[in-house]
Amino acid sequence: MVTNIKKYKYYSEVTYENNNYNIENEIMIKYKINTGKTFNNNEWTEIIDENNYYYFDRIAKEKLRRLLTENELRNFLFDLGANKDLIDKLVIKYKKYNFINDDLYTKEYISYRQYKEGPSLISKKLISKGISQEIINENLKNIDENKIITEKVESQLNKRIKQNKYEFQNKLKLDLIKKGYTKSYIYSIVDKMINQTKFDDLLVIEKDYQKLIRKYENKKTKEELNYFIKTKLYQKGYSKNDIEYIISKEKDN
Fold first, then answer.
1. What's the pLDDT tens digit per position in 165-184?
2. Which among 123, 121, 173 has a CA at the least distance from the CA of 152?
3. What distance in Å separates the CA atoms of residue 230 and residue 209, rounded to the nearest whole number?
4. What gap in Å lies between CA 154 and CA 148, rounded to an integer?
């Protein structure tokens, strides 16, 4: 027998046979559950089973206020204790009404992330969310990598600090590769745009030269220091002529 009912917004706490159950509002209405009412074992089992459906349906819909993949929703419901049959039933329903749509999720994700992440990184993250490789590959076709990489390089060129051409070029490539953009696009676009840009390496070389002098002039002989500095500057990618010019200029001062 139902001995007590305490109502809440979405459910009621029902005391039945000295046990407490959270019964969803839909079930309360459907089975006309009131204080003093009795049910046989089969009826109460049916009520609890149906109640589970309405409970997980309500919780899932709250979760689906933001986009989720099918896999994310399945894991969410499973972690809450829903069984596979119930999860399958809810997923079929949500797919029918387009509450979950992995293709739409992929499109939205790519649209939002494509200027922050390249195709390979996007692909890895979507796979981890349970999206099929087929859906991912089909939607990755819509990314205009040429345009995105070009805009990123332009942005970096406009705000570059005093770096030599070689260091700037390599750092730019490495950053784009880490973000998951395609290496062939990166190398082609970066090299082309860098070669079309004038870099005043002499100022940067002179700055690096002075740093090396201050750090090592009391640690090496004159001959050792000269060779050491040339080697360090070569390693930074400066041209031989520019290096020789700066060294000669500094010696004359």
1. 778 899 999 999 999 999 99
2. 173
3. 9
4. 10
